[in-house]
Every structure is written in structure tokens, then in C-alpha cells.
């Protein structure tokens, strides 16, 4: 099994386990009597903890290798799923999300691994493969979680999905230890442990690398739109159409299916014909259009069209923006760079849920999607000519 295929499988397993729980958390919170604001803020707690932990895990993966970080993250995820499955109150639900966020170094380590083993000209393709793996997990996971829980809002089971997610995390650990080779040599790990450690801290990296700073800002805005959609989708399906967990999972399946089709095929073709920044900009445009369609849709079929646009946006944005970020790194700080870039996603996943629940509660089901469209519009403004000059084409960082 090739290294890229192995990291693809591990990433699918990781995100599949996470994706299984996505459509269920709002229903579990609703069962405990929580308001939409409280539910989305509990979801936000994961991102708050991930924001703190992700850059640290990135630096540790530079120093100790990608494999240990992947294994530790998957083990932590397993424990958090079990806590969630047996949760008897909102406090246990919150504790499971806090632990999961603190242990969430897997995606940045997987992206860094893919960048390690690819040539610069193939990096977008390799990162697109990891992005497709994320898409596959988020495509199958919510649908599987909904099926395992059932479509009865009051009688849905949350223990079965949690046990499946925990089992998948254990399978991922086994693949890491027994199949996946380390992508960083002992010499590279030693260089990371003895070099300028201050230069690997997130704020210092952003100060020294203008290209990383610019693409990270754009990613913050785009991912805020995505996080708003993800955090409110199940509540939107429940409040507007009365759908249960299984139907909400199928809606997220539709979004992820389109993302996988784009990441697995169309985006690879586009990045060969157009600059990566143009492809990323196209993704931001669709993140503007998709939520607007959902917000203004007169019926459910039109809403599905909006979800499909959001899936296409994810498929275009994720691999192209990740590749731009990876081009700002050297061999000895790639994990730190990707961890810093991923931290923008954590901030975005704080902004999205923080705004989505109160907006829905105060102004109705369309309001969060209008907010998401606004975030995407700001991202488009940030991807201007100056940014093109800063991030377009450099394969090594300056400073």
C-alpha cells in the first residue's frame, strides 16, 4: 500500500468517526433541553480547544514525526466518542467536545504528511487526496450516523453511533502503527528540535510569512461560512422541515458527496489549467452563492441545490488553499505551518457556531445562512491582487 493511499485511508477513518456524530449532537442537546444557542456553543467548544491544541500538535509532529501525533489524536477521539455515547447530561456532552478538540491534531498532521511525501508540482494533488478523504468521511459519516441513530426525534439512539466511531478510531490507530511509515527522517526531526523554536510559533509564522498570513485570513473567513452551515444544518432541518437525524444526515451526505466529486476529479484538472488562487477564489464565490440559495429557497428541493453549491465550494477551496499554505513552508517547519493554517479553521469553527445559534433563535432559519454568505463575501474581498502577488507561486517562505 502506497504512503498516500495509507494516509488517505487513515484520514477517511478519522473523519468518518467524527462525521457520524455531526448530525446527532444537536438532537442530543435538544433532548437535554438546551436552546439552539447552547447547542451551537457546545459544538463551538470543540473548535476553541482545537484552536489551542492544533498548532502545538503541528510543532510536535515536526519534532517527533507524524505517526505519533496521528496515533495520539485517534486515541483521544476514541475516548471522546465513548464519553459522548454515555453522556447523561449537557456537562458530559461538553466534556466530550472539549477532550475531542484538545486531541484534534490529526488533520494538520495528515496534511503535513501528504506535503512531506509529494513534490512541489504534485502537492495540490496530494493535498487534494487528503481533502477527498476528509470529504468521504464527512459524506458517509453523517448518513451512517443518522441511520444508526434512527429518524425518530425522541427515540433516537446515540450510543450505537458513538461505539461505531470509537471502533473506527481504534482501527485508525492500528493502521498508523502497523502500516503507515514515518514521512520524516531522524535528521529532519532533529533539525526541527534544535532549530529556531520561536519561528515555529503561530504568531511568529504569520508575522514572518505574508503569504501564510494572507491565505490564513481568507481561510478563516471561508471556513466561517462552512462552519456556520455545518453547525446549524441539523437544527435548520429540524426547525424548518421537522426532519429527524437520518434525514439530516442524508442532507450532509449530499453536501459531502459533491465535495468529494470535485476534490477527487474536477479540482485536480482545474489546478493544472489555472493558478491555485483562482480555483480557491471560485470556491469562495460558491460559498457566497450556496448559503444565499438556502436562505431564500421557497421549498426543500431548492435548498438542496444550495447545499450542492456549498459542497462544490468545499471541493474547490480546500485542496487549493491548503496547497497555497503548504508552499509557504520549509521541510523543517511544515507541520508548524500547516498547524497554524489549520488553526484558522478552529477560529472559524468558533465564529460560525457562536453566531449561528443566536441568529437562528432570534431571526429565524434563514439568518445563519445570510451570515455565512457575508463571511464568504469578505473572503472574496481579501483575495485581491495584493494577495495574488503575495501567495501566488512561491514554493518557499520568505523572511
Number of discrete helical segments: 17
Q: Number of DSSP strands?
A: 0
Q: Tell me the helix content.
A: over 70%
- What's the overall average pLDDT, rounded? 80
Strand pairing plus helix content: what structural class?
mainly alpha
Point out poorly predicted stretches.
Answer: 387-399
Shape: globular
Distance between the termini: 38 Å
Major sheet, described briefly? Answer: none
The Rg value, from CA coordinates, equals 20 Å
User: What order do the SSEs take from the amino end to the carboxyl end, as H and E?
Assistant: HHHHHHHHHHHHHHHHH
Question: How would you describe the oligomerization state of the chains in this entry?
Answer: single chain
How does this structure look, described?
There is one protein chain. 81% of the residues lie in helices and 0% in strands. The protein is built from 17 helices and no strands. The protein has 399 residues and is mainly alpha-helical.
Write a compact overview of the structure shown.
The protein has helices spanning 3-21, 25-31, 36-64, 66-85, 90-102, 106-116, 123-149, 159-178, 186-194, 202-208, 210-241, 245-273, 276-296, 300-326, 334-363, 367-382, 385-391.
Key terms for this structure?
mainly alpha
Please describe the topology of this protein.
Blueprint: H1 3-21, H2 25-31, H3 36-64, H4 66-85, H5 90-102, H6 106-116, H7 123-149, H8 159-178, H9 186-194, H10 202-208, H11 210-241, H12 245-273, H13 276-296, H14 300-326, H15 334-363, H16 367-382, H17 385-391
Helix pairs in contact: 1-6, 1-7, 1-8, 2-3, 3-4, 3-5, 3-6, 3-9, 3-15, 4-5, 4-6, 4-8, 6-7, 6-15, 7-12, 7-14, 10-11, 10-15, 11-12, 11-13, 11-14, 11-15, 11-16, 12-14, 13-14, 13-16, 15-16
